[in-house]
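Input chain follows. Return structure tokens only.
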Amino acid sequence: MTQPPQQPPRPDEPSDTPPGAPNTPPAPPAGPPAGGFGAPQDPPPGGFGQPTPPPADPFGKQPQQPPAAPQQPPAAPQGAPAGGYGTPPPPAPGSYPTPPAPQPNGYGYPQAPQPGYGYPQAPGQHGQPGMPQQPYGYPTQPMQPQYGAPQPGGNGGKKFSTQMQIIVAAAVAVVLIIGAGVIYSATSGDGGKDEASSSGSTGGEGKGGEGSGLAGGSEKVPANTKSKVAFQVPQPVVKDIVTVEGSWLTDKAYVKTGIDGINGYDRDKGTKLWSLPLPGEMCTTSRHMSKDYKTAILFRETRPTKEKKYPACDQVGVIDLAAGKLLWSKSVTSATGGDRPVTFDEVTLSGTTVAAGGTSGGAAFKLADGAELWKPKTGADGCYDRGYAGGEALAVVRKCGTYDSPQLTVQALNPTTGAPLSSYQMPAGVEYAHIVSTKPLVVAADVGDTAGDGSGISDFFSLDAATGKLKVRIPADAEKYAGDCDSTEVEKCQNMAVGNNRLYLPTESHDGTSEYGDTNEVVAFDLDTGKLLGGRADAGDRHILTPLRMDGTSIIAYKEAPYDKGGQVVSIDGETFKQTTLMENPDDEAVRKAEKRFSIGSGAELLYSEGQLYMSAKSVHKPSTVTPDEKVYLVVAYGTG
């Protein structure tokens, strides 16, 4: 799992961190977008420079040259499982397959037996060797609430030698020929829907139009899936790093945070509809919206001055995204007393409740007028509400204990009163927990820092929100799966989706079946049993597939293309994993170059709705890697039709 870069700390940032609690620096800027196409609004003079070499792959790899073909193709290894990722093995019912002779380690090959995640264990015998580990994408036995000892990661995400790549490619080619007629099926879930109103959602739950080819949701296949650049917004000139996090879609406007406030743009043309200045820099935003397009934000009390270089993030407010108005804003003092305003780290929205939390306290407000609803209690034991997650329900991660020995509890809350409805105590060794979904309640955590890649995820926890009981714990090897959660924040997970009582995850990029270029898949885990289901969505050679959000029972995903192609947006049927193309971006070099500045790996914000894709940066700074005549963009928008 790949973690977005982290923003350098502000040296004079006021800290309300409790004694012994970590003081984590904020996240770093995404790489500056580059462009130089279409009709920019008030652009600087100039255009694109000379063609450049293929850009670096956003997943950390340079484009590869095809290896020299061998004079004699090697024989395919024996024992390679048919189908590769996501294909169930064929053991007899109630039995395990006999382990084949040892094969080279890699994707699709059985691994040597090791203790740890996902192995059948005798009761009480944690960490003992069991049956051989199933390769990538194979269904596993239902995960139990018990936790096995962590095991060292294999070499699934590492590059092989050229000779080994050719051997694996040959084996996979045979597998593809044998399995060409196989139709993947997926176990039906409970039909639950992720109905939280979030960034990119236009409200409502409608079904796909007749003949649209999509399973549920509101998205339809455009008459022409080929897109063109609709508009772009030039990046503003800044002297320092400025946070511009936050983008939303209403029925008429694309709304984006700028360096001085928030701006609404016409969804089709990009003309500015309204501009809302703020007294201070934006700190963070909620990705959720109410049905009438209201959302919550957190911003600094003032602009920086010589006396106060880094004002505190203590202002909570609500924006009417349709009208472009700040409906209300306020600060609060700590529940433990004192006159100093609470500094917040996160803010979210659930129903008619706005909830903000951080290391120095928390509070909840009425969406309509900002009236204070409740404050969580903080005691001498150092307990506090680290952060909240919203959407269809409201949940919190509450942190107690000391820095050396923290204890985290995940609670489902009554949004109106703040009273806990249920509680689940996270295992020892969890420093930060991340709420992926509130309904169903799904939590991600890096238990004992075993992920090893900074993604914040070694396991997912599927919880019963009514009782607080653990349904199932799902190990997620960081070398296999590419989900990301911010290292400290509660509601900042990306590259995954929850719906149909399933967790949809992308695999890490790996060698494809062609001579060069990476690929990956999207797979699904059942949230009741923890089983990895038999279906999968393949990105295809030299493409990387990443979930963006749910659309009814389908997943909207972005398909990142190789350096010489434009990206795509696809809809993935949540049951059959059938892919339907919704958008194909231009292959033109100038357009490609701008698009790749907003790659998934850069932490950019991507919103897709009704044949329109909006890509934007979360922070801006003075460009250092562009030529004088090269334009840099805050937003690039694409449209079909």
